[in-house]
Amino acid sequence: MIAAEITAKAFLLDHIRAMERHFDVSVVVNTDNVDFLKPFGIEVPVIAVGIERKISITSDIKALYMLYWLFRRHGYDAIHSVTPKAGLLSMIAGYFAGVPIRIHIFTGQVWVTRKGISRWLLKTLDRILVLCATHILVDSCSQRDFLIEQGVVSNKKSNVLADGSICGVDTDRFFPNIEARERIRKKYGISESDVVFLYLGRLNRDKGLHDLALSFDQICSKYNNTHLVIVGPDEQGMKEQMESICTSCRQKMHFVGYTEVPEQYFAAADVFCLPSYREGFGVVVIQAASVGIPSIGTKIYGVIDTIEDGITGLMYRPGDVDDLAAKMAEMIERPDLRKKMGTNARIRASEKFSKETVTKALVDYYKSLLLAGN
After folding, report:
1. Res 246: pLDDT
2. Does residue 34 sit within a domain?
3. Residue 203 burial by CB count (10 A; 0-12/13-18/19+): exposed, middle or buried?
4. Which of 140, 249, 252, 257 sits at a 20 to 30 Å CA gap from 91?
C-alpha cells in the first residue's frame, strides 16, 4: 500500500491488519519513522519514500524513480495507492515496472472546485493515473457516477467496496459516550441544555467553513442556547476568517485544532455539520452517525451517500447560507427530530458502514483479483 503516514494511521490500520493475515504486505509511506505502525501492533515492512503532497518537480521525479526500482526489485503481485500524488506516481511507476495488478482508490477530486487551466491540468493527471492503473476503487457510489460522467473512469474498470467508504467506521470507538460528553462540554463552558453544532475535519475554503460561519452568525442572533465547535488542523487561516464573520458570537465558537480523540467531540455534540463543496465520501458523517447524532450536509456527490435526507439528517444546497441556517434552526427547535434522526443514523452506520464490512470487502476484492491473475 502506498500512502502518506497520516493517511495510513487514519484510514488503513484495520485494512493492513486484515491484509497481512492473507498476504505479504509492505507499506510505502512518506515518513521519518519507519516504526510508526508498531504501536498499533502491526509488524509489516514499512518503506520510506519522500512523496510530497504538493507539486515539486525535483522531489516528484526522485520519488517516481525510487518507486520504479522498488517495484522492480521486490516483484510485487499488486500495488494499491491512496491519495492523489501517491496514486499518480505509483501507478506510473507500477505500469513501467510491470506490476500485474495496480489499484488506486479515489477519495475525492481536488479539481472539482477549480476552474480554467488548473482544473484541466489536475483532471488530466487523474486520467493519466487511471490509464496506468489496472483497477480503480472509488469510495462512494455517487462519486463513481460522477467520475464516469466526467470521462475519468469507465464503468468496467471501477468499483465501490460494499456501500462505500475507504475504511468504514469503528462502532466500538464511535458510540454515545455520556462521560466524554459531560467532560468536553464542561471544558468549554457549555451546558447540557445548549445545542452544540460540530465541524470536524481540515479547515480550508473547500470545506465551506465561510458558509458555516455566516449561517452560525444568523443562528446566534436568534438563539442564545447554541455553540459551534470546530475541530481540525487549520490549513488556510480559517480561524481568524471565521471569527471575523462571527464578531457578535465569538464566545460561542470553540476552535480545538487537531485531536487524536475525535469520537469524544462527536459525543459532546448534538448535530454534525459538513458544509463542504467537495467530498469523496464524508467518513466524518458516518462517524457522527455511529455516535448517534444527525448531520446537516451539502447535496453533493459523496455526501449524499452518507445522509438520508429527512431520516438521518438534513441536506441543503451547497453555498446557500440561508438554507443552511434554516436547517440549523430546525435542529435547534426540534429536539425530538434530532433524537429520532440520531437513532436512525446510528442504526444505518452499523448496518451499512461498519469497518468490518468494508475491510472484508477489500480482502475479498484482493482475493478475487489475485485468483483471477493465477
Report:
1. 92
2. yes
3. buried
4. 140
